[in-house]
Design brief:
With about 325 residues, the protein is α/β, with parallel strands linked by helices. The chain is about 30% helix and about 15% strand. It has one domain: Alpha/Beta hydrolase fold, catalytic domain (Rossmann fold), CATH 3.40.50. Keywords: Secreted, Signal.
Amino acid sequence: MKLLIILTIFATSCYAADFDKLVLRFFGTGYNDYKNLTMTGNFSAINGTAYFDMTKLSALIIHGRVENYSSDVVKELHGAFATRSSTYNIILADWGAYSEEFYLKMMLNLNDMADNFVFLLNKTKTAGYDLKKIYPVGFGVGAHVAGRIGSILKDQNTTLPRITGLDPTGVLYNWAALTVKIFGAKGNKTPFKTLYKGDASFVDVIHTNAFWYRGVDVAMGDVDFWPNGGVTQLKCDKNCTFPKVIYKVEDCSTCSHDAAFYYYAESVRSFFPNFNSKLCKKNTLIKSSKSCKESASANMGFFASSTATAGSYWLETNKAWPYSKLF
């Protein structure tokens, strides 16, 4: 807690970035077919074209730290939502120009960055688009950016229906998440604001590398999913089993962290719910499935529903694609 207070005080004198390089990429018929909306750009050049349909919902993909337009998470999620192009516009909140900054500096600038993304999104609102059609899906640090966008829009009297967080980053954010757990929503007003239930009408979170330094190890959504326990993933056994994990810890952690967007993308591509999960008694990091024999169940991923019983859910995946146990 003391560390969080010290860092918060430091935030007041931290360098504020110029966010003129933030971009919303509106995808057309393929991954390399897109139009950019910049801070000084005009949305009229995009609206009503193959890049944006006012009648559709919009998937807003938000990548993580040290990532950009060409990262695997963007390619994977774009490919998944492309299978639903009849109902979804696909937009990327590209902050790659700032994602490799010194970590603390980056964290302290996320609020301002989210403000600027909201400025860009409001250009679509000015043209007549209903921002409640926007569905942010954020990975890693991008999950916290998604939460900030939702929170800012909520303050502007627009509550998003849903936000999905894919293994939200835990470095320093675990302190903030713990503060929220103790003090509730009032504890989530620091410069290190995490994704949290209330940022949208429904917030669902997939944890795949919690407890390690990459992922948050506390529940933060209306529903939180902890596949394979939420710490390391079966698909990563090559580098996550003893003794190899001792000298392959980075590979193990990266693989488990990335698993969140691979699981989610598989659910988007599915025609039906494919990651059934069991409600657990503990609403936190799940070390054993023994506490997860509750009668209630929920679907992880795209088909997660706001009608599900609030809490933490456990499920087991396959070691390789398809990851759903239905196959």
